[in-house]
């Protein structure tokens, strides 16, 4: 099923002269996870997945789950009054109120709960297994499903600046939340997370 947030489903979309969409090239290491299956094999260390398979499943959920985006949008809707009445400048974090900062902390908690729920309920794994898998799931620096790149993407989504810009875009421009995989800068052969 195609996500309502997908803008192009071509396999190798060219974005401009120096950027490509690495998600078009990404795979889940050949693993197709059936999140409803109770027949997942357990490794010697007690985990249900190989590290890269676990991280890939979370990356896939992170980048494609419409329900997640809807919960984030509900959060934005529930907190927009703080940003419409109290100002705040995403370019200057010192200009935000304590109530706005509290909303940011609640946003981070929402992310923690969403990741924990997905990992424990859908993947029958644990947060500690996922955290460990992030460090073990190695890949090329351009592999958006490598542990370091998934951790970086999650971290970039939960910075105060990213939150403030998202609130501004939602409030002023009516733009709902969207989570895009990082772009590959072909000149530097590196992912760009902004």
TrEMBL record:
<feature type="compositionally biased region" description="Polar residues">
    <location>
        <begin position="20"/>
        <end position="41"/>
    </location>
</feature>
<dbReference type="Pfam" id="PF11527">
    <property type="entry name" value="ARL2_Bind_BART"/>
</dbReference>
<keyword id="KW-0969">Cilium</keyword>
<keyword id="KW-0966">Cell projection</keyword>
<feature type="region of interest" description="Disordered">
    <location>
        <begin position="1"/>
        <end position="48"/>
    </location>
</feature>
<dbReference type="InterPro" id="IPR042541">
    <property type="entry name" value="BART_sf"/>
</dbReference>
<feature type="compositionally biased region" description="Basic and acidic residues">
    <location>
        <begin position="1"/>
        <end position="19"/>
    </location>
</feature>
<dbReference type="GO" id="GO:0005929">
    <property type="term" value="C:cilium"/>
</dbReference>
<feature type="domain" description="BART">
    <location>
        <begin position="63"/>
        <end position="170"/>
    </location>
</feature>
<protein>
    <recommendedName>
        <fullName>BART domain-containing protein</fullName>
    </recommendedName>
</protein>
<dbReference type="GO" id="GO:0005737">
    <property type="term" value="C:cytoplasm"/>
</dbReference>
<dbReference type="InterPro" id="IPR023379">
    <property type="entry name" value="BART_dom"/>
</dbReference>
<keyword id="KW-0963">Cytoplasm</keyword>
């Amino acid at each position: 099923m195609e996500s309502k947030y997908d803008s192009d489903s071509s396999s190798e979309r060219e974005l401009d002269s120096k950027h490509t969409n690495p998600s078009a090239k990404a795979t889940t290491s050949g693993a197709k996870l059936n999140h409803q299956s109770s027949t997942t094999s357990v490794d010697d260390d007690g985990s249900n997945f190989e590290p890269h398979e676990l991280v890939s499943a979370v990356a896939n959920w992170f980048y494609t789950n419409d329900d997640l985006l809807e919960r984030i949008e509900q959060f934005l809707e529930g907190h927009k009054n703080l940003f419409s009445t109290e100002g705040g400048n995403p370019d200057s974090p010192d200009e935000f109120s304590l109530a706005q900062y509290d909303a940011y902390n609640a946003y981070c908690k929402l992310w923690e709960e969403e990741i924990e729920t997905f990992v424990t309920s859908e993947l029958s794994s644990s947060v500690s297994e996922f955290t460990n898998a992030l460090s073990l799931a190695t890949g090329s620096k351009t592999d958006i499903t490598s542990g370091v790149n998934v951790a970086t993407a999650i971290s970039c989504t939960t910075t105060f600046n990213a939150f403030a810009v998202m609130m501004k875009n939602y409030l002023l421009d009516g733009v709902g939340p969207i989570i895009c995989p990082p772009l590959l800068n072909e000149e530097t052969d590196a992912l760009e997370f902004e």
